[in-house]
């Protein structure tokens, strides 16, 4: 097989899964890139968008709303080392460089711009970096390692999460077919954290305000999601992400609904009190 054929194998697999009956994670060729900050901007009061660009983002792989990259902070390590390219994989040094994971909110192959929306919170490594970083600053980005490819032929889609999941939900709503039906539930502190979304007409968007409750303690999301009724005989795809403890009841509920493994993805994006949490799922 020629190198050119091999390079496009993941694109063929993505097309096959998209046209199939169940979702599947598809690996992409992984790169480590040096991009540069183009600009930063607040998106609502809860997300800070860091737009990256420069020659380093050329040929970036973007195929799925929940794919993520690692932003690397080697300058925080005693011995600053980056992963090394090894064919289509990365060889990571031990210990790995300090990093944080972010959803790919948007990649524009024409301009080469890559948007990462960072949830703003006090004392977070990534949040503090996003607030302080200036245009022109070089940024090391690894990934995405792959993405969850979901067929577009489900009868309904259920998307649910907190503000850390909002970038992925916003991209989901943009990339679903305009004929798609279903629900999106997003937990935010209040109206100031709501953002504009491009949802298909038949997808109901519900903003849930947790008010004075701290992030990660309110059950407002799990309660609201469990009120939906899926019409008899319809196929549902469910995508849920957020604070690990708060989405746990939804794992059980989806199981009780009878959803198979290929019809759902439930991922803890963070955990209260844990600075660098990584769920058993990739996200």
The total of beta strands comes to: 15
Note the main sheet. 6 strands, antiparallel, barrel
For the record, the CATH class of the largest domain is: Mainly Beta
Low-confidence stretches: none
Order of helices and strands: HHEEEEEEEEHEEEHEEHEHE
Q: What is the CATH topology of the largest domain?
A: Elongation Factor Tu (Ef-tu), domain 3
Tell me the Rg in angstroms.
Answer: 19 Å
What do the pLDDT scores average to?
93
Descriptive account of the structure:
- This protein has 6 helices and 15 strands.
- It is of the alpha/beta class and 283 residues long.
- It has 2 domains: 3-146, Translation factors (Elongation Factor Tu (Ef-tu), domain 3, Beta Barrel), CATH 2.40.30.10; 151-270, Rossmann fold.
- The strands form 4 sheets. It has a 6-stranded antiparallel β-barrel.
Task: Spell out the key features of this protein.
single chain, 283 residues, alpha/beta, Elongation Factor Tu (Ef-tu), domain 3, Rossmann fold, six-stranded antiparallel barrel, five-stranded parallel sheet, 6 helices, 19% helix, 34% strand
